[in-house]
C-alpha cells in the first residue's frame, strides 16, 4: 500500500493505492486563494497542513485495517510558490503562489543583474518563478526578508511538517531560478544576486529517492509506522509525467488543469529561453524536460461557471450535445478573467486592464 499527497492550487488531494497500482481510497480537501491586492495570489501554508491532516484522518477511516500497511508516501504539488520560514521554522507571511504577478519589475531587475540566468537556470525571469518573489519581498517587506532563514516550495512545506526535514527535489527546485539545472545543484551566483545563499535553501534529492521518514509523534497520530519513507517527489507536471508514462526522451503530453501545459522529456539539458520555453529537471535522474505553460486553462472554465451559476460538468455535457451548426464560431479572447490576463511563457506585461 502506498500513499500519495498532491498539494494543488484549488485543493489538496490524497489517495492510497495497492501493490498493483489500483486505487484503494481517495479524498480531497478544498483550498481558497487570497487576493488582497491586484496581481497578488496567496495562500496560508497552515491551511495546506490542516487540509492534509484532515485527509489523513479521512483516508484512515476509509482504508480501515489496510491503512497501517502503507509502505511509503509520495509528494507532488504546485510549483514556484515561496514559503518563508524564520529561524524557529515558523511561517513569516502567506505563501506567494505561482500565479502571483506582482514581481514584474523584479523580473526586469533580475535579468539585468544576472546575465548568466538564461544559461544556468534555463528560463527567462518571469513573475511566476520563486526568485523574483524574494526580490519583491526584499524591496517591499525588508523586515520579512531579514527574518527569512529558509525558503521552501509548497509541497516541501508539507514534507517539513511531516518529517521535520527541509528538503526539496530537482524538478521543483528547477522552478525557482536558483538551480543550476544542468548540474542539478543550487547556483551560488544566482542565490547571491537575490541576497540569499545555500543556507537559505533546502537540501536536494532526486524525486525517486527517499528524502526522510515520518516524525514519530505524527506517525503515531496518523496511525502509520514511523519508518515509512517520504519520497523526494516532484513538481506537479513532472510527477504527472511519471503517471502517464512520459519517462523516455521524446515522450510528451498535454495537461489541462488550473494551468495548461505542453511537456516534452529530454535526455539532456536543453534551455530555450529565446523561445520562452521552460527547461527543468525531470523527477528521474539524468532526465530533463521542456515545458510551455499558460497561467489559466480549466480555471477559466471554473470562473465562467461561477458567473452563470452552472457546474463545469453540466456545462460541458450541454456543449457536447450541441450540433456543429449550433456551436458558436471559435474565437480568441485575450481579455476575460483576471487569472487569464497573461501567459507564463511569454514576456507579455503582467498588468492587464481586463474587460
Automatic annotation (TrEMBL):
PROSITE patterns membership: FGGY_KINASES_1
GO process annotations (BP): D-xylose metabolic process; xylulose metabolic process
Matches recorded under Gene3D superfamilies: 3.30.420.40
A Pfam match: FGGY_N
Example GO molecular function: ATP binding
EC number in record: 2.7.1.17
All residue ranges annotated as the Carbohydrate kinase FGGY N-terminal domain in the record: 1-243
Protein name: Xylulose kinase
Lineage: Bacteria, Pseudomonadati, Pseudomonadota, Gammaproteobacteria, Enterobacterales
Amino acid at each position: 500500500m502506498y500513499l500519495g499527497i498532491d498539494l494543488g492550487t484549488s485543493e489538496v488531494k490524497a489517495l492510497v493505492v495497492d501493490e498493483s497500482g489500483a486505487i484503494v481510497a481517495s479524498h480531497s480537501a478544498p483550498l481558497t486563494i487570497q487576493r488582497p491586492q491586484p496581481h497578488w495570489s496567496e495562500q496560508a501554508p497552515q491551511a495546506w497542513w490542516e487540509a492534509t491532516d484532515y485527509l489523513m484522518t479521512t483516508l484512515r477511516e476509509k482504508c480501515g485495517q489496510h491503512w497501517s500497511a502503507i509502505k511509503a508516501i509520495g509528494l507532488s504539488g504546485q510549483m514556484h510558490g515561496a514559503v518563508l520560514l524564520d529561524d524557529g521554522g515558523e511561517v513569516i507571511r502567506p505563501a506567494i503562489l505561482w500565479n502571483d504577478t506582482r514581481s514584474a519589475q523584479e523580473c526586469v531587475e533580475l535579468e539585468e543583474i544576472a546575465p548568466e540566468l538564461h544559461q544556468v537556470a534555463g528560463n527567462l525571469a518571469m513573475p511566476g518563478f520563486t526568485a523574483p518573489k524574494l526580490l519583491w519581498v526584499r524591496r517591499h517587506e525588508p523586515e520579512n526578508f531579514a527574518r527569512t532563514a529558509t525558503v521552501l516550495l509548497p509541497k516541501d512545506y508539507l514534507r517539513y511538517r511531516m518529517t521535520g526535514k527541509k528538503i526539496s527535489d530537482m524538478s521543483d527546485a528547477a522552478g525557482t531560478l536558483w538551480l543550476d539545472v544542468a548540474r542539478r545543484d543550487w547556483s551560488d551566483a544566482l542565490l547571491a544576486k537575490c541576497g540569499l545563499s545555500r543556507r537559505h535553501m533546502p537540501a536536494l534529492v532526486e524525486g525517486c529517492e527517499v528524502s526522510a521518514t515520518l516524525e514519530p509523534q505524527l506517525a503515531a497520530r496518523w496511525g502509520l509506522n514511523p519508518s515509512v519513507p517520504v519520497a523526494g517527489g516532484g513538481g506537479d507536471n513532472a510527477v504527472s509525467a511519471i503517471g502517464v508514462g512520459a519517462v523516455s526522451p521524446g515522450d510528451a503530453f498535454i495537461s489541462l488543469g488550473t494551468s495548461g501545459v505542453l511537456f516534452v522529456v529530454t535526455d539532456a539539458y536543453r534551455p530555450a529561453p529565446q523561445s520562452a520555453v521552460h527547461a527543468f529537471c525531470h523527477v528521474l535522474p539524468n532526465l530533463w524536460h521542456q515545458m510551455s505553460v499558460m497561467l489559466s486553462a480549466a480555471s477559466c472554465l471554473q470562473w465562467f461557471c461561477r458567473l452563470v451559476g452552472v457546474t463545469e460538468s453540466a456545462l460541458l455535457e450541454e456543449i457536447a450535445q450541441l450540433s456543429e451548426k449550433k456551436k458558436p464560431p471559435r474565437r480568441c479572447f485575450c481579455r476575460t478573467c483576471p487569472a487569464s490576463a497573461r501567459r507564463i511563457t511569454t514576456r507579455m506585461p503582467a498588468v492587464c486592464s481586463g474587460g
